[in-house]
């Protein structure tokens, strides 16, 4: 067997995945038979107008929602075949999330917000300390690790959320408009950070966005319109 010609298994596959919402007699079709693959190490901007299906696609990939038709595979698992516990474990091990509105816990310090996913995975605080501080340093918040998120700027809060997403060393980070709540300049700094993390840690990113800057700097662009892939290209 010539193993050299074997293509690596994609990290994630959407195969003819459709999603409809609401009354089956009068459904809203959010996604129409989407087929695509995501490979290890990619940095993908998921672009398209409001309502085009970006968040829906991310939710299917992360197993937060199920397709109405078609299949989603993550790390070789057909998500439809997993029970809730298996899905929760796969998500906890393999996926990090970043949201538009940060979703940090206001009563916890930066340190404890970043530690939180490790705590849920059973790590003791002291045992996790090095790993938590390492990623806090990577996102540039070493001077702020004791502070609550409310004392930080929006950009700094998003850095905390990125550290929290990365601390478990997930294979895939799913980010839904991570710069959507930031001014252009701060958004640009966050894009720089996401690109740096992709480069340094080899983490795979798929990021929904309305930002032309992120679209132009992403290695791959998936453009969706009306729930269909309109374009899929790589920037030079
Ligand atoms: N829970 C839901 N129930 C009913 N319809 C929904 C639901 N979620 C999304 N939709 C519909 O599915 C379509 C796609 O929505 P989605 O949120 O994926 O778009 P989006 O590209 O993320 O938009 P935005 O850029 O505004 O975030 C829209 O028509 C939306 O109204
Ligand atoms: Mg959305």
Describe this protein's structure.
The mean pLDDT is 95. The two termini are 34 Å apart. By secondary structure, the protein is an alpha/beta fold. The protein is built from seven helices and ten strands. The strands form two sheets. It has a six-stranded mixed β-sheet. It has a four-stranded antiparallel β-sheet with strand order 2-1-4-5, with helices on one face. The protein has one domain (41-59, 84-234): P-loop containing nucleotide triphosphate hydrolases (Rossmann fold), CATH 3.40.50. Helix 4 (125-138) packs across helix 5. The chain has helices spanning 54-61, 84-94, 110-120, 125-138, 154-166, 184-201, 212-217; strands at residues 12-21, 28-38, 43-47, 69-74, 77-78, 95-98, 172-176, 204-209, 220-225, 228-234. Helix content is 34%, strand content 26%. Strand 1 (12-21) and strand 2 form a beta hairpin.
